[in-house]
């Protein structure tokens, strides 16, 4: 687990300032949400925590470690995307095992870890199914399992439920919260959906045009 410190972060893309002078601390074990309209800098900020982008100026720290320019694979973060980003021609097992194979773990260990995490997301009966033969909700569970299996310190989720219908979205909200409590993991969640943010988060940062306007608990933000 890690506390994330973002200090005076600015990110420019040419003449566009995507994020401006951002200061945020995300506590260890917290469910923290970035809320705001399209184009306000939520995804860019998430990607700077993941290491897919480096800030133009400012600092990213996990606990005491300066991570500002550390490569993504050296951060021990997991990421879940809106479009799942799974390998459609592979089975559920192969998708979830992928990150463990890259880390060169023993076959027996991989089998055990994958079976265990698939039970946690309630997909164990689909272990040998091709991903392309699963529903959207099931695919998003595979994406969650794939991110969780490497035991990340921080799990980053970028609008993970926006491709699902309302009923599934509801179900998956509960599911993600359950996993967060079970793993005690720090989660950073990006959404433009106020209900989602208010119902799931320990704290919320409200973004607008590249700036963080307010940070608070759901009750504080609602008021
Ligand atoms: N790789 C890039 N190159 C140039 N401009 C970019 C890039 N990524 C983002 N931007 C710009 O930075 C701003 C913030 O984008 P960002 O994707 O962070 O917003 P967002 O709040 O996540 O929006 P959405 O909810 O639509 O994903 C936007 O104006 C966007 O056009």
UniProtKB/TrEMBL annotation:
Keyword list (alphabetical) reads: ATP-binding, Nucleotide-binding, Transport
UniProt cross-references to PROSITE patterns, sorted A to Z: ABC_TRANSPORTER_1, ABC_TRANSPORTER_2
One Gene Ontology MF term: ATP binding
Q: Which residues form the ABC transporter domain?
A: 4-223
Gene3D superfamilies reported for this sequence: P-loop containing nucleotide triphosphate hydrolases (3.40.50.300)
Can the keyword Nucleotide-binding be found in this entry's annotation?
yes
**What InterPro entries does the entry give?**
AAA+_ATPase, ABC_SmlMolc_Importer, ABC_transporter-like_ATP-bd, ABC_transporter-like_CS, P-loop_NTPase
What organism is recorded for this protein?
Paracerasibacillus soli
What is this protein identified as? ABC transporter ATP-binding protein
> Signal peptide location in the record?
none
